[in-house]
Amino acid sequence: MKQFPRLAEWLPLLRPGDYLVLLAGVLLCAFATMMLWRGGVPEKAVIRAGGELFGEYPLNAPRQVEVPGPLGISVIEIEPGRARVAVDPGPRQYCVRQGWLTQAGSVAICAPNQISLSLSGRGGQYDSLNY
Amino acid sequence: MTRSTIELTPTVEDRRIARHAAAAIVLTVAEAAIPLPLPGVKPGLANIVTLIVLARWGWREAVWVGLLRVLAGSLLLGQFLAPGFFLSLSGAVASLLTLGFAMHLPKRWFGPVSLSIFAAFAHIGAQLVVARLWLVPHDGVFYLTPVFAAAAVFFGLINGLIAARLLRDLPQAT
Fold first, then answer.
1. What domains can be seen in chain B, in order of their start residue?
2. ipTM > 0.95?
3. Residue B143: which of A10, A26, A36 has the nearest Cβ?
4. Tens of pLDDT along B8-57?
5. Diameter of chain A by CA atoms?
6. Quick check: A86 contacting B, CB < 8 Å?
7. Does residue B150 belong to the interface with chain A, where contact is any CB pair within 8 Å?
């Protein structure tokens, strides 16, 4: 409670316009954050089978896609903003255990069944950048 | 017969500029010792001096103090003509120009805090542009804009408050 008189000492130094400028500055920060930091939000799920494009699906409605491969059928599950390989006939289940993909540029590969699921979107993330 | 010595007689104004520039340089050097998580995010304490000089003695003296500060500060820190020097210089020039316009805002409504925040934004704006055009020719530079903008608001507010308080409390010396 002792800090309030101290804060009150500083407040009269602010003039009405200063509050406006401060508010505008904070809004500008919020705007910049929203504009620049939403890269990585995926827009589409791209499914490939046997090296060929099998299909592209928007990530706004839930759906299940059955993709045939040499070992059998893999099931890709799509939900708003994310996608995963739900079922795969491969022996080690790596792509299934990867779970939900949520970032643009991330990939789940079911090598035995020759199927891959990747998320594409604006400003996909890089593994690394060198200058 | 020509005279062999050049007489330089500093005016009152010269001494005042030198004194304020010295104060700003001290703050610059002291600030360089503060470890900060991101390069480029600095409190910019020296701008408090610039704001006070601007309010008391006008824009011309503020420009002198601001530019002398960048020059001497970089010499002391061993950064003269290094990339960091040009970033400081571009930031200082941009914020001084901005202050030149912003100082004509009605005083009743806009105090040192507004000027400080404007100057801070001009500072990071110019630095980002220079960095993009020259140092890192890739749009990835702008990825950090939100951090810099937040720092500009925060430190702009703090510096402005300190400047306002000093302007209120310091005696009106020469």
1. 13-169 (1.10.1760.20)
2. no
3. A36
4. 888 888 999 999 999 999 999 998 888 877 776 888 899 999 999 999 99
5. 76
6. no
7. yes
